[in-house]
Amino acid sequence: xxxxxxxxxxxxxxxKKKQKGxxxxxxxxxxxxxxxxxxxxxxxxxxxxFKYGPMLGxxxxxxxxxxxxxxxxxxxxxxxxFKLFIADPTFxxxxxxxxxxxxxxxxxxxxxxxxxxxxxxxxxxKKFKRFxxxxxxxxxxxxxxxxxxxxxxxxxxxxxxxxxxxxxxxxSTINFLSLPQWFRTIYVGSGIWQGLGWGAILYLAALSNIxxxxxESAKIDGANRWQQTLHVTIPGIMxxxxxxxxxxxxxxxxxxxxxxxxxxxxxxxxTADVISTYLYRMGLEANNxxxxxxxxxxxxxxxxxxxxxxxxxxxKFSETSLW
Length: 323
Fold this sequence. Notes:
The protein is mainly α. The chain has 2 domains: 2-64, no CATH class; 79-317, MetI-like (MetI-like fold, Orthogonal Bundle). It has helices at residues 2-32, 34-38, 41-52, 80-86, 89-109, 111-121, 126-137, 144-155, 161-170, 180-199, 201-208, 212-220, 225-250, 258-263, 269-272, 275-285, 289-317; strands at 63-64, 75-76.
């Protein structure tokens, strides 16, 4: 027993010695490059103030909040607001709309930047490649207001180019933005166009890191361009694809509200109203902040479960994961 205790004491001393050595090493690294580490101060302050600080406000999902009263609510009500939105048929309608739009964006929109990056990678003319990249990046830097205005102009029943073409062939026009069945197509399609070039950046960076000797070996083995893409290029960028897929799954319910609010109207609520727009109306317009916070917290928990599940299965069936 004495021998075991002596060994344990020695192990504890060694662990403490290593920890002390690592601490001194880290301090010396920070001291040496302190100018670089000072650049982290503003981002850290930003995340504390605007990301982690507001998390304290989630407490009003369990408390009755009155505008002008205590920031943390007036009275503890438990799961009252969670029961309210679970029993609200309007919430489940917006939840269904959010899920459908998100799945469409994931299934249809996610592969487009990958395909676009692979096509760009095959272009041999550097000037033409830069031109295509620049043109494809530009829509990403346009605001949601500009994008919504362009969509309204293009699809206008009276002056829109799309309806002019339709009228030429059919003799009639379609008021796309007033028909619920068209809203999801318009939203997802415009999103693909806007994010195509920007979404391809990470894949292009991953493509540039693939060892060219692998292509040479594939050529020697008689592989054509398609076979090289299938057996060299795609496996080379697969870790990047998996990581971005996990992140996209985690944000499955986080449909942006800006473009939807600019495009939807009461006629299209049945397919266009999503959780974020519902939260806006409940929280800022109806001043029901506790109810809106409960829905937002529910959405965040679902996102956490999704990203954790996607990461678990990715780690189980492949060698790539977020953690």
